[in-house]
């Protein structure tokens, strides 16, 4: 069913690969914009069926056993979105249309429903339909390497990029497209902090040059300080209990840096014009910076997307 509704003048679309990616990478940004009244649409490309399970009593949900983890993670994602204040969430092509491909080089990459094997134009078409519905001015997804090389993250980038191309022909493409990023300066600070700890996520790494991610600070376009939403991000991460154990280093560093670690997120700008910023590199503090926001958009929106 489609209804006509008035959407807010700020509309943000995020394209993520698996449940939990949204909370870890962009949770505070999502919560921040939802809290100030923007329409935040999250599109998740798979159910995360191949994820590890960190809750022992749920071990039989694994892909090698009952293969029911994906269904369970739908519930986790729903709880995470509730914590972030996000009410518009969709799975690309519908829940289960595309399957988690697993890590690069595994046999799961060849599963007939693996997202890695998805027809690019078909998958992008599903995303274009959503763009027609919500008319986002800003989209967030991953860089061409999927931030760290996971095939589904890479495919999410490809699909989102192709969707923008197709949507442009219809006049509904977002004006700005951002990629998630982590400044090298932040990573270097993390290396220094963890060197003496027992829960060191960088164990065996002596330089940020050895990491599969990290963006030179001058290439960062936006720094979103959503420290007021750090608790929402942590709650959303805890909702993904099968994937993020309570002993995770993510919570350890949050205990040390708190709101700053959980609440500040960074992005590079792939499409569009950079708006006004500040600091030595002119980082934006608003993803909508420089855009002419001409009031609410009255567009047909799928009722299912408003739950």
Automatic annotation (TrEMBL):
Alphabetical keyword list: Hydrolase, Metal-binding, Zinc
Enzyme superclass (EC): hydrolase
GO terms (BP aspect): mycothiol biosynthetic process
Superkingdom in the source lineage: Bacteria
Reported cofactor(s): Zn(2+)
GO molecular function terms attached to this record: N-acetylglucosaminylinositol deacetylase activity; zinc ion binding
Matching Pfam families: PIG-L
EC number: 3.5.1.103
UniProt catalytic activity: 1D-myo-inositol 2-acetamido-2-deoxy-alpha-D-glucopyranoside + H2O = 1D-myo-inositol 2-amino-2-deoxy-alpha-D-glucopyranoside + acetate
Record note on cofactor: Binds 1 zinc ion per subunit.
Residues binding Zn(2+): 18, 21, 153
NCBIfam families noted in UniProt: mycothiol_MshB (TIGR03445)
Purpose: Catalyzes the deacetylation of 1D-myo-inositol 2-acetamido-2-deoxy-alpha-D-glucopyranoside (GlcNAc-Ins) in the mycothiol biosynthesis pathway.
HAMAP family, per database record: MshB
Family: Belongs to the MshB deacetylase family.
Name of protein: 1D-myo-inositol 2-acetamido-2-deoxy-alpha-D-glucopyranoside deacetylase
Organism: Micromonospora globispora
């Amino acid at each position: 069913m489609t209804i006509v509704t008035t959407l807010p003048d700020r509309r943000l679309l995020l394209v993520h690969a698996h449940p939990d990616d949204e909370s870890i990478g962009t949770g505070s940004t999502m919560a921040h914009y939802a809290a100030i009244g923007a329409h935040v649409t999250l599109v998740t490309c798979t159910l995360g069926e191949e994820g590890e399970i960190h809750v022992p009593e749920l071990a039989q949900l694994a892909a090698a056993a009952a293969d029911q983890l994906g269904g369970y993670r739908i519930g986790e994602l729903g709880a995470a979105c509730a914590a972030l204040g996000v009410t518009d969430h969709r799975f690309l092509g519908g829940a289960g249309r595309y399957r988690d491909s697993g890590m690069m080089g595994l046999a799961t990459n060849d599963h007939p429903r693996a997202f890695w094997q998805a027809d690019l134009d078909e998958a992008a078409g599903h995303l274009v339909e959503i763009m027609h519905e919500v008319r986002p001015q800003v989209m967030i997804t991953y860089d061409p390497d999927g931030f760290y090389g996971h095939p589904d993250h890479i495919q999410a980038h490809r699909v989102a990029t192709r969707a923008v191309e197709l949507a442009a022909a219809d006049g509904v493409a977002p004006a700005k497209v951002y990629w998630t990023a982590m400044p090298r300066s932040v990573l270097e600070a993390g290396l220094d902090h963890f060197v003496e700890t027992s829960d060191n996520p960088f164990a065996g790494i002596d330089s940020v040059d050895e990491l599969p991610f990290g963006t030179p600070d001058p290439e960062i376009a936006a720094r979103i300080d959503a420290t007021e939403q750090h608790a929402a991000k942590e709650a959303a991460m805890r909702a993904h209990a099968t994937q993020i154990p309570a002993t995770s280093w993510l919570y350890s560093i949050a205990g040390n840096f708190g709101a700053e670690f959980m609440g500040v997120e960074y992005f590079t700008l792939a499409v569009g014009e950079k708006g006004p910023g500040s600091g030595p590199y002119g980082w934006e503090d608003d993803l909508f910076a420089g855009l002419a926001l001409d009031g609410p958009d009255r567009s047909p929106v799928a009722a299912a997307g408003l739950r």
